[in-house]
Design a protein that fits this description.
Blueprint lengths: L5 E2 L1 H7 L7 E4 L3 H6 L2 E2 L4 E2 L5 H6 L7 E4 L5 H12 L4 E4 L2 H7 L5 E2 L10 E4 L3 H14 L5 E4 L4 H8 L9 H7 L5 H12 L5 H9 L4 H26 L1
Parallel strand pairs: 1-6, 2-4, 2-5, 5-6, 8-9
Antiparallel strand pairs: 3-7
Helix pairs in contact: 6-11, 8-9, 10-11
Length: 238
């Protein structure tokens, strides 16, 4: 198939959870979602009937990958409509079924918070900074994160319809919200233990910032680099 119109699961996986990841749009119909309630990490559901409205009400995104259940008519039609609006869009080869068959990471929708609901995280917390990296890189690149005093997280979440995760264990945080990926779990478990040598750099980056939002922005590249190094080490072992 024309590679200007499609992209392989392996090519998407290589950029997943990195700043280079494309915008992922899942256009599965309700029947398919009910039969297979899982989604590629970071994918946002948009009805194929609303895809033009979605594209028209936001700044032009970078590359977009459109996902349906089998990688056939819905994803190709939606991608074609996006390309007609000047967006570089391709369909995921084989769709969600092929992604699942290759045993690539997926998120369980019955545990995933509403995609547009904000997250509440405690300010001045290194664990929260890592949790924000997980949210932005694995759950929703466009997520709204509300940084508040730690004692107020639960009450703020209740008042604003937001999600305030427990950060006692970062690895458990992912599992709680439907993301079970062995490589990511191993990465976060090491952080939970305090063993990575780069953790002081993460703390120093946050200490130089006057707001939690800027501290998070400073920390994301450090975590991106650490994640890339973790994956490289795993490949060398295997």
């Amino acid at each position: 198939m024309d590679q200007t119109l499609t992209i392989s699961a392996d090519d998407v996986m290589r950029t997943l959870a990195t700043p280079q990841a494309p915008t992922l749009i899942d256009v599965c119909i309700p029947e398919d979602i009910a039969a297979d309630p899982w989604r590629v990490p970071g994918a946002r559901h948009v009805s194929h009937l609303d895809i033009q409205d979605w594209a028209g009400c936001r700044p032009a995104p970078g590359p977009v990958v459109v996902i349906c259940q089998k990688g056939l008519k819905l994803s190709h039609g939606a991608a074609a409509l996006l390309r007609a609006q000047g967006i570089a869009a391709r369909a995921l080869e084989g769709g969600n079924q092929n992604w699942a068959a290759r045993d690539l990471p997926r998120i369980a929708l019955n545990a995933h918070p509403e995609i547009d609901a904000p997250w509440v995280l405690p300010a001045n917390s290194n664990a929260a900074t890592v949790a924000a990296w997980v949210i932005y890189r694995w759950f929703d690149a466009a997520a709204t994160v509300m940084w508040v005093p730690s004692a107020m997280c639960d009450e703020v979440a209740m008042r604003f319809g937001a999600t305030a995760p427990s950060l006692t264990s970062l690895a458990a945080f992912c599992t709680r919200f439907g993301l079970d990926h062995p490589s990511l779990s191993a990465f976060l478990t090491e952080i939970d233990k305090g063993t990575p040598g780069w953790l002081p750099l993460l703390k120093a980056a946050g200490a130089q910032c006057d707001r939690p939002e800027t501290a998070c922005a400073a920390a994301l590249p450090i975590l991106d680099t650490a994640w890339a190094a973790h994956l490289t080490a795993l490949r060398e072992v295997t």
